[in-house]
Design brief:
This protein has 294 residues and is α/β, with parallel strands linked by helices. The chain has six helices and 15 strands. The protein binds flavin-adenine dinucleotide and FE2/S2 (inorganic) cluster. The site of flavin-adenine dinucleotide (FAD) has 20 residues, from strand 4, strand 5 and helix 2.
């Protein structure tokens, strides 16, 4: 249904139950802010019986015994163990401490184990986007899956102009600022904004839409990826439409409470769509019949 998005099937067809978590070692814990930590994890063996392979925008269910599990987007460059033969490919998850599991995750240390299922869902199909100008619009923790997407395309000749608009409440809450300097060196136009004035901040103040009007976009060549709080989507879409970007060229990632991750329990359901399976990345046109989407 959606040519711009990854159409990878969930792993219900292999012999290992997709409910069965696989252990992974935490190789590194990096404190990004008071609320967010980056975990580099290495599966002990193939997750769910398959080599690790995912696309940006896909997610894993990550859990700890006694605390349950929750979906977390992959924050790092995609790996493909099908190609290099090793199931033990490290990747990053960035976790904001908001509740029971995520606070427990913030207490774990290098060498501890987490338990993973996945990858699940549809991500960004980067091959289909070759030749396009890519506009990344991230709000708050939306930069986490966006980092995976950006790392897959930055510095590659096969893509057109790359632009990142990233907003957060305060300067400290803009994640991966050091890496953004590297992305600028690779030719990306990086524009940052914070919600309200803050001592020492010399950049833009205002929501992400305040940075859209000054962009020079080629409507037929531009695809926008938008990830952030749901309230942002409606206003970003309006601002992009004024720039003549079509809804079919806007990709958004949705968040819903999830349990199974692969279309069985219905927790993530919006009308007829299961976000864990049809999303989390949708083309805006595919959400036209789903008014509850955001
Ligand atoms: C596809 C997907 C990808 C995600 N990627 C990330 C990620 O990369 N990093 C990250 O930190 N989080 C991510 N999340 C959100 C994460 O799964 C939830 O915050 C998770 O519930 C945290 O578990 P917890 O037990 O710590 O919090 P809980 O104890 O379950 O909840 C704590 C508080 O947060 C609220 N809450 C929890 N989840 C949500 C939600 N999805 N929407 C609105 N409110 C919610 C609860 O109502 C409660 O008030 C993602 C969610 C989805 C669906
Ligand atoms: S989380 Fe179970 S159907 Fe989506």
């Amino acid at each position: 249904m959606n040519s711009l998005l990854n159409q990878q099937s969930p792993k219900t067809d292999n012999l290992v139950s997709p409910y069965l978590p696989s252990a992974a070692t935490v190789e590194r814990v990096t404190k990004l802010t008071e609320k967010e930590r980056l975990f580099t994890v290495t599966p002990l063996a193939a997750i769910g019986g398959l080599p690790v392979s995912f696309d940006p925008g896909q997610f894993f269910m990550c859990g700890l015994p006694g605390y349950g599990e929750a979906p977390f987007s992959v924050a790092s460059m995609p790996v493909n163990s099908h190609i290099n033969g090793s199931p033990k490919q490290s990747f990053d998850l960035c976790i904001r401490a908001v509740g029971n599991l995520s606070n427990a995750m913030h207490r774990i240390k290098k060498g501890d184990r987490v338990y993973l299922r996945g990858p699940f869902g549809r991500g960004f199909k980067t091959d289909e986007l070759k030749g396009k100008d890519l506009l990344f619009i991230a709000g708050g923790i939306g930069i986490v899956p966006m980092r995976s997407f950006i790392k897959s395309v930055a510095g590659k000749d096969s893509y057109g102009k790359l632009t990142l608009i990233c907003g957060a409440k305060t300067p400290e809450e803009i994640l991966f600022q050091g890496e953004m300097d590297e992305w600028k060196d690779m030719g990306m136009d990086v524009r940052l904004t914070i919600d309200k004035r803050h001592p020492g901040w010399k950049g833009n103040v205002g929501v992400v839409t305040t940075l859209i009007s000054s962009l020079k976009l080629k409507p037929d060549k531009t695809v926008a990826a938008i990830i952030g709080p749901p309230v942002m989507y409606k206003f970003v879409a309006l601002a992009l439409r004024k720039k003549l970007i079509k809804d079919a060229s806007m990709l958004v990632s949705l968040e819903r409470r999830m349990k199974c991750g692969f279309g069985k329990c219905g927790h993530c359901q919006i009308n007829s769509s299961y976000v864990c399976q049809d999303g989390p990345v949708y083309r805006l046109t595919d959400l036209a019949g789903l008014p509850e989407a955001f």
